Amino acid sequence: MKTDKLKILNNRNLLTQKLRDFLCRYNATLLGIQESKRDNFERLPAPGNGLLHCFTVSVLFHNIGIFGKEGDYLDEIYPRLAALHMQLTNYLKKRDIEINGPNTQIAITIIPYADPYGTLNKSMPLYIRESRGQKVITSETLSKKSPYYANLIQKYSACSGVVTNNGTVVGPDGGLIGAACKVASTYPNKIRVLELGSGGGSTALALAIQNKIQSYLGNDFSPEMITHFQTEVAPQLTKYSVKSSVTFGSCFEFPLKNQVDLISIGVYFQTQPSLFEKRGHELVKCLDKSGVLIVQSGMLEDPFVTTLLSGSMTNNSIWPWYKKSYHLNNYFTYVSEYAIEQETVLITTNNLDKFQQITKLFIENNGFKKLSIANKY
Ligand SMILES: C[S@@+](CC[C@H](N)C(=O)[O-])C[C@H]1O[C@@H](n2cnc3c(N)ncnc32)[C@H](O)[C@@H]1O
């Protein structure tokens, strides 16, 4: 039997044909496929040569109600997009093509476009799969099993792996660690940090090792991550004289009352549109005048949530569920998008001087590539 890799990578027409057949069932048209490769940092060890071959599939949906008609992005819209991805995975699996799983080197992401002449028909059923950080992996094991993480650890020293209850490696977030350390270096003093989705605590530790953090407030809805932080991370931070505390619970309920210099958003991508819609103004309020918010908003091959936050895809406004309140520009004057450690990170602030300092520093740093959205000045 041919492997999935041979089947698709040796025959792109086969993939196109299978996608067209699949999309037909959903009254949708394949617009185009973009290919890219990156390190497969969601698996430990990653299968094959360690790289993930990504297909970003742009699709025009003629039923603009397919992902729901109204309601909260996290509860009502994302679960329908997840259902479509799950259906695609199953459809291809039945045809001996394995995608998006632990043993495959192929990822397919559908980027949905709404047909401006489309009609509002029935929505897909919701697909809900609970996920939270569950297990922590030491930096030694990470280094041994993954060249990507070995490189990250060499640069930032302190990184712990975070594996979910579904077996996906979701931390450390290289993009956030890279962005946080660079942003911190633009402040003369040690900074106060708040992080939603603190996971293995790698952002705090990387900043502590660089001697750039004064205090850290974390939050995670995983009891395992909170225990790990309290038993392993907090004592290390104390050695660097960093005051820290973590709060168990949802990022939607975390009390936002302290003034900080940096907010780092590490919660899942699908949570972010709802988080900014509900708490965007509160997040701004707890930032100091020269404060910065960083958010890791997607994988390089999957820009969908990033486009919702940045407002960079005007076609999104055709969806009946779409809300302008997802846009970071409602809360921040300056928003820019970077590829950092092969992840997409949005950097936002209301302070022009800070924005200019960061832009200069990031552009001088060859590893940080500026992505599509234009700066607002
Ligand atoms: C991508 S990992 C972040 C990893 C972290 N930045 C690190 O370097 O270890 C996401 C973390 O956010 C937590 N999380 C996801 N959604 C959340 C929510 N709505 N509220 C609080 N925590 C959440 C998960 O349990 C997980 O530990």
Short description:
With 377 residues, this protein is α/β, with parallel strands linked by helices. The chain contains 11 helices and 14 strands.
Q: SSE layout and pairings?
A:
Blueprint: H1 4-9, H2 12-24, E1 28-39, E2 51-63, H3 73-93, E3 106-119, E4 133-137, H4 139-145, H5 147-156, E5 161-164, E6 169-171, H6 174-184, E7 191-196, H7 202-209, E8 213-220, H8 223-239, E9 243-248, E10 260-265, H9 272-285, E11 287-299, H10 304-310, E12 334-340, E13 343-349, H11 352-364, E14 369-370
Helix pairs in contact: 4-5, 6-7
The protein binds S-adenosylmethionine (SAM).
Summarize this structure as a short list of keywords or feature phrases.
34% helix; 2 domains; disordered C terminus; Alpha-Beta Plaits; alpha/beta; single chain; 377 residues; binds S-adenosylmethionine; Rossmann fold; 8-stranded mixed beta sheet
Describe the structure.
The protein is of the alpha/beta class and 377 residues long. It folds into two domains: 4-119, Alpha-Beta Plaits (2-Layer Sandwich); 133-370, Vaccinia Virus protein VP39 (Rossmann fold, 3-Layer(aba) Sandwich), CATH 3.40.50. Helices cover 34% and strands 28% of the residues. The chain is built from eleven helices and 14 strands. It has an eight-stranded mixed β-sheet with strand order 9-8-7-10-11-13-12-14, with helices on both faces. A three-stranded mixed β-sheet has the order 1-2-3, covered by helices on one side. The longest helix is centred in the N-terminal third of the chain and has 21 residues, at 73-93. It is globular and about 60 Å long. The structure holds S-adenosylmethionine. Residues 132-133, 162, 170-173, 176, 197, 199-200, 202-203, 219-222, 225, 250-251, 266-268, 271 line the site of S-adenosylmethionine.
